[in-house]
Design a protein that fits this description.
Blueprint: H1 3-16, E1 32-36, H2 39-42, H3 55-61, H4 77-91, E2 95-99, H5 102-105, H6 115-130, E3 134-140, H7 146-149, H8 158-174, E4 180-185, H9 187-196, H10 207-231, E5 236-242, E6 246-248, H11 254-266, H12 269-274, H13 279-285, H14 293-297, E7 303-307, E8 312-316, E9 324-326, H15 344-358, E10 362-366, H16 384-402, E11 407-413, E12 432-435, E13 440-443, H17 445-460
Helix pairs in contact: 4-6, 8-10, 9-10, 15-16
């Protein structure tokens, strides 16, 4: 999109902004501001340059997503990455969190690597660095190679070794330029929603598969940490966890909420950081645990990646696989356009709880608001509801920092509107609007607000 066109589309948005910045006084002098994306959600080019199919390609082409959307084109980031990096420069961010598509670099998930796929990430990483931005590389954001899924995927113990080999390839190729690595993004989501709740991609899988998968993903995490430590000098490693307070819909649902908390919030960080599984699932996982496994999982890491959007409300459900299902929120709680509760105090409390439980520096690696944004009559996207959400949640993060939590960075989800999994393209989380028919990028009002917040925050932190 030409620069003049971008400026004209954003001018009206700037005039309408009135939301002040959140308090930022408690943040560190070296606090990192960034944005996050993921490979399958933005890259497109799913059939180009030797990339193999992922499980999400298969699922989409089966017509299972909303409006039968697929990731075939997504945001065309594969061809437009320089345009997207230019957007990051305009924001003034210091770090960009992205993921590598496993089937792009290893089309069969193992065996011969795909040089054309590897070369794409060479170009991407080099361009990020030239822009003065630090690359944060996540190894896995849900796009398992279909060839490995055909062999059982995460249900087989061999998956840990497959992942370690993939991590070794990525580390050897990019470790001279990338020092920040995350092993997994939100393992609780792709396991719990894939195997625990039923329906969707893993409808026929039983709850026994869930416990196997949880343990094997944890083993894969530990193996990848060891590989990264061995192959990347001076690396900084974390894992990214989706942590949402699990609240009872009624006093009678307290046990159901506690059970959900174990599977949603603690099934991965507890063994990874403390060497134990939560009590409520320990007996179910024990059949898959071999001697020494917990030591293999509990490898030293440097930081905790926290993804947070809202609390979830639970109710007891005897017919559900795990004994709980989603319940009703109290009607007085406001919600986002997609119906998620807006409770910034819960974000503050979550940060403090994570800091207390795991004792690691925290980076907020995802936070944002989903909506159904559309351009107004002038062509601008004035998403004041997103600005209000970000202001409240960044303010809550600042309160947690003032209360003693070691929070070192914040990454908005997301730089771009994108393929939002089962919801397809209808749901929009970006601070940049994607006009999918033309692939035009139009910064929203929230883009300009976040840009100005970063500028103000860095100025108050002594950066000038």
């Amino acid at each position: 999109m030409p620069a003049g066109e971008a400026a004209s589309n954003s001018a009206g948005a700037d005039k309408k902004l009135a939301a002040p910045y959140p308090p930022i006084a408690a943040l560190r002098r070296d606090f990192i501001w960034g944005v996050s994306t993921s490979s399958f959600q933005i890259e497109g080019a799913t059939n180009e340059d030797g990339r193999g199919p992922s499980v999400w390609d298969t699922y989409g082409h089966q017509g299972q997503t909303t409006s039968k959307d697929t990731g075939d084109a997504a945001c065309d980031h594969y061809h437009r990455y320089l345009e997207d990096i230019a957007l990051m420069q305009r924001l003034g961010i210091q770090a960009y969190r992205f993921s590598v598509a496993w089937p792009r670099v290893l089309p069969q998930g193992r065996g011969a690597p795909n040089e054309r796929g590897l070369a794409f990430y060479d170009r991407l990483i080099d361009a990020i660095l030239v822009a003065g931005i630090e690359p944060w590389l996540c190894l896995y954001h849900w796009d398992l190679p279909q060839a490995l899924d055909d062999l059982g995927g995460w249900t087989g113990r061999d998956s840990a070794a497959w992942f370690a080999d993939y991590a070794a390839l990525v580390a050897s190729r990019y470790g001279d330029r990338v020092k920040r690595f995350a092993t997994f993004n939100e393992p609780s989501i792709f396991t719990l929603f894939g195997y625990g709740f039923g329906g969707g991609m893993r409808d026929t899988a039983g709850v026994e598969s869930l416990h196997r998968v949880i343990h094997h993903v944890n083993l894969a995490h530990g193996a990848a940490v060891d590989v990264l430590r061995e192959r990347v000098l001076g690396c900084s490693i974390g894992a990214i966890h989706n942590n949402q307070p699990c609240l009872p819909s009624s006093p009678a649902d307290a046990q159901a909420a506690a059970r959900c908390d174990a599977y949603w919030n603690r099934a991965f960080p507890d063994p990874q950081c403390r060497g134990v599984y939560p009590d409520v699932m320990r007996a179910a996982i024990e059949p898959y645990v071999q001697p020494g496994d917990l030591a293999r999982i509990r490898r030293p890491i440097d930081w905790f990646g926290l993804n947070h959007y809202c609390p979830v409300f639970l109710k007891a459900d005897a017919n559900a696989r795990l004994g709980f299902s989603f319940g009703d929120r109290p009607p007085e709680i406001p919600v986002t356009p997609i119906g998620w509760p807006i409770m910034p105090d819960a974000f503050r409390d979550t940060i403090l709880e994570v800091a207390k439980n795991y004792g690691l520096p925290i980076y907020v690696t995802e936070n944002g608001l989903g909506g159904f944004d559309k351009p107004d009559e002038s062509g601008a996207i004035v998403d004041d509801n997103r600005i209000a959400y970000l202001r409240a949640y960044i303010g809550a993060m600042n309160e947690a920092t003032a209360a003693g939590a070691d929070v070192r960075g914040y990454f908005v989800w997301s730089l771009l509107d994108n393929f939002e999994w089962d919801s397809g393209y209808k749901m929009r989380f970006g601070i940049t609007y994607i006009d999918y028919p033309t692939q035009r990028r139009i910064p929203k009002a929230s883009f300009h607000w976040y840009r100005d917040l970063i500028k103000a925050a860095r100025g108050q932190s002594g950066y000038g």
